[in-house]
Design a protein that fits this description.
Elements (H helix, E strand, L loop, with lengths): L16 H15 L6 H4 L1 H5 L1 H4 L2 E7 L14 E7 L3 H7 L1 H12 L4 E8 L18 H10 L6 H15 L6
Parallel strand pairs: 2-3
Antiparallel strand pairs: 1-2
């Protein structure tokens, strides 16, 4: 009896965008001294709302290692771009920000922060379409369907989804 063996073919499978973007962004981050893009991505959480819009990490300057002091680690300097008068207020919070950056790295990687007063590139706010609206009978039907949901956040999210699904398509 002849064996029937067909070579196994892999189906093309989509890759997660996170796997693809890392190969593109990592060389740029390494050029600026960042091991990964994590510090740039988490910067608003590190500095808080007050400085998220007016500051951004520019680069990390790692000290050159001396050949005879391999055991001794020297922390790096984080260069932060900050706009205008916020630099004065930011300067007073540098010790807390260093602690938060080091907590993100998991060790005391940053020893000091150097401020660079330059304009900060602000990301543009994404455009949002207005929420679709339903006529009164469809809205009442939707609210009846959602009547048993007690969690307010879940209720609002499902209401938005329901309005999006039940609203008539508009051509723009």
């Amino acid at each position: 009896m002849a064996s029937y063996s067909r070579p196994y073919r892999k189906r093309p499978v989509g890759k997660p965008i996170a796997d693809l973007i890392g190969d593109i962004v990592d060389p740029v981050c390494r050029k600026r001294g960042f091991a990964t893009a994590d510090i740039v991505a988490w910067w608003p959480d590190i500095v808080g709302e007050r400085y998220a819009d007016c500051s951004e990490p520019d680069r990390i300057a790692w000290p050159k290692q001396k050949e005879d002091t391999v055991e001794q680690f020297e922390p790096a300097t984080l260069h932060v771009r900050i706009s205008g008068a916020q630099a004065l207020f930011f300067q007073h919070e540098i010790p807390q920000i260093i602690d938060r950056v080091n907590a993100m790295f998991g060790y005391s990687a940053i020893g000091r922060i150097r401020l660079i007063q330059r304009p900060v590139s602000k990301p543009k706010a994404p455009l949002r379409r207005p929420a679709p609206s339903l006529d009164q009978s469809d809205e009442a039907s939707l609210q009846d369907d959602l009547a048993g949901i007690e969690d307010k956040g879940l209720h609002e999210a499902l209401a938005r989804l329901g309005r999006g699904i039940r609203s008539p398509l508009k051509k723009t």
